[in-house]
TrEMBL record:
Annotated EC: 2.4.1.21
Family, as annotated: Belongs to the glycosyltransferase 1 family. Bacterial/plant glycogen synthase subfamily.
One of the Pfam families matching this protein, by short name: Glyco_transf_5
GO BP field: glycogen biosynthetic process
Pathway in which this enzyme or protein is active: Glycan biosynthesis; glycogen biosynthesis
Descriptive protein name: Glycogen synthase
Function: Synthesizes alpha-1,4-glucan chains using ADP-glucose.
Any one GO molecular-function label of the UniProt entry: alpha-1,4-glucan glucosyltransferase (ADP-glucose donor) activity
Residues of the Starch synthase catalytic domain: 3-232
Amino acid sequence: MEIFHISAECYPMAKVGGLADVVGALPKYQTNAGHLVRVVVPCYDTKFKNENDFECVHWATVKLGNFDFPFSVLKEKTNKLGYELYLIEINDLFNRPNVYGYEDDIERFLSFQIATLDWIIARNKIPDIINCHDHHTGLVPFLLQVAYKYETLKDVKTAITIHNGLYQGWFGFDKLYYLPEFDLKHVGLLEWNNSINSLAVGVKCANAVTTVSPSYLNEINYSANGLEELFRSVRNKSKGILNGIDFEVWNPLKDQMIAENYSIENFETGKLKNKEKLCEQFELDSSKPLFSFIGRLFEEKGGDLLPQASALALSEHFEDINILILGSGNAEIELQLTQLRNDYKGNYNVFIGYNEELAHLIYAGSDYVLMPSRVEPCGLNQMYAMRYGTIPIVRRTGGLRDTVIDFGDDGNGVCHDQASVGDICYSINRAVNLYNDKTNFNKVVQRGMSTDHSWERVCQEYIELYNLIIEKNEI
Ligand code: GLC
């Protein structure tokens, strides 16, 4: 079947978070399974865009109310990503380095959605499925159904995948005129709490709603930033499909970004070499267990708990642990984490920023990865960690609940229930004891390394869901 994925992010073209990893990998496995898969993202001014060759396959003008923006559709020439990548180039709106964070984000992502549909309809070929991702593409199912100009695409089946329901793309009805003309009797579909809510629109109008883990699907029924009732009402067309990870990119045996390759057969020596390199780089002591955090420093990820939890754990265990943090986000959290360096030299360090290569080395060289998230729709870091023989320490929520089982229950990680400094430190204590019991520690590592989180398996679940909505219009 012909599948379109429409998304704001796709690794390696543009990455802010896990959304990019999923949209950069799932299509490859769907292609391998014999489908024709096209990924469409905006053409930002990124390294990948500048270092690769593209051909222009379509150009026109996209209308946003009274504004006209010339746009082109650029196709990556080689298909080296394992699927067809298309960029919507609207220079006035996207020729900028960042994905999000501009005053005109609403105008940017609306134009992106409209231009994408203008191109799809201009091809004169009707796709089987359009899979939208998060609120940036939430209006697509609505426009397909009701906008006069997309009449011939009216029956295309759509799915919306929710990677993060906290962000919803709200805007006022004063911008209603941006949308292509449609019969106003449908205007209610746009509304949630007196504004246009892009995510809610997608959830109402798509043929199927997926979340990136089964537990997250349950959680959004009672915690979804105002959309709980809506999620409850669409339960019969919703499904939680746990994300996979790209086992080709994330493979400690082949990874070019780490210091020493290894597998489950020789992880002890392999990981030690990586740990030594990491500890040398960050002035840490490789004879002690290394606890790391990789990610965005926001409350949602429990980032605000890290400064105090690190300080407490280090003061209790100054002699026997290291903590290393890689991330960026909230300026206050960044500052607190940076200041801690002065108090715990030799046992603590932080790298403010985002660095894909360093992330790989951290997974390879750490003993534990901390994920104290308040909200975690799926979480990929715990899966990367396990694949690299690093034990995840997680708060039981969303996808973390679905992938990590406490070692006390013969599982692959360390779990706690509360998003609190106390719970994090309690888990660190248990992890230090486990580290000192090498036989059991290694068993937990091996269980993690042999867990199958590959996309091959997961990819089939998406295809089955698409087939159901194509054949029966329901799931
Ligand atoms: C978002 C979620 C994260 C999920 C990722 C990919 O970043 O916060 O939990 O793993 O999307 O679906």
